[in-house]
Hints:
It is an enzyme of class 2 (transferase). Belongs to the thymidine kinase family. The protein is an alpha/beta fold. The protein contains seven helices and ten strands. A six-stranded mixed β-sheet has the order 5-2-6-7-1-10. A two-stranded antiparallel ribbon has the order 3-4. The protein has a two-stranded antiparallel sheet with strand order 8-9.
Amino acid sequence: MSPPPxxxxxxxxxxSHRRPGExxxxxxxxxxxxxxxxxxxVMAEADTGRTVAMIKSSKDNRYAADAxxxxxxxxxxxxxxxxxxxxxxxxxxxxxHKLDVIGIDEAQFFGxxxxxxxxxxxxxGKTVVVAGLDARCELCGKRAFFTLRKTNEMQTxxxxxxxxxxPVCRQHYTNGQGVRMDAARRGFETPTVQNDLIFETAATV
Length: 205
């Protein structure tokens, strides 16, 4: 089967001239200001005339159903979605084509994050700004690979903040039952670990 006509356009040249996309990652522990940094970056892009859109997980309804909200109350309208790969269809093909920057808050909720970022940046030339968790244990300051639920709620999915969860290392996770009950009794009077660990990296996936 012959390839479709290119109407005089060299597809290889057209692809080489397409503006390359970017993926920027903002990571840090809980309450480190990741969402604030994300909003600041997206609004700065909008101020330069670029078209922007924000996405968050539909599971996150702590502050608003249709906005990304920082802990200090700053808001930005968003698309609340169960997955990222549905965004292009929901946003509309024409609107998506004109879109320059996509912000993603609480990225750890999306199982298709990698595939979406590759498609948006590599194929569609978008700038994608992602904010998600990279935590430190709130009990000892070591790298936190686990999130410990501090309450006795039993449902599989429970959306909450510091009143419900804390990032912990493996040691404190395996000892979690005792830690959780003790934290509940003490009103979570745990040693403070300085949350100055947020950093931003930029890379093209």
